[in-house]
Amino acid sequence: MFVKIWLDDIRDAPNNYFHVRSVNNAKLVINQFIERGYEIELDLDHDLGDYANDGGDAICLVRWLAENEIYPTIKLHTMNPVGRENMERIIRKNGWRLVR
Hints:
By secondary structure, the protein is of the alpha/beta class. The chain contains three helices and five strands; from the N terminus they run ββαβαβαβ. The chain has a five-stranded parallel sheet with strand order 2-1-3-4-5, covered by helices on one side. Helix 1 (23-35) packs parallel to helix 2 and helix 2 packs parallel to helix 3 (81-94). 29% of the residues are buried. The mean pLDDT is 80.
């Protein structure tokens, strides 16, 4: 079983997605679904990714996932080029599966 989680603080989630609007909410939701035995598929927004080293909420969440050894499937939506590059670098570094 798996659950699709949409992290975006502005746009509503598509059908069949569980919508979270903040990193802290995403952490709670992810932990709850993992405890119930679900696999996680994350769809991350990264419009605020113009920072060289930080990159916004999505990168903060991905770093937390790495620290907690949680390995979801990850999709990226509506990302600007710098944000996408930052996120893809972190995803490759941590060995996650990136779905396009």
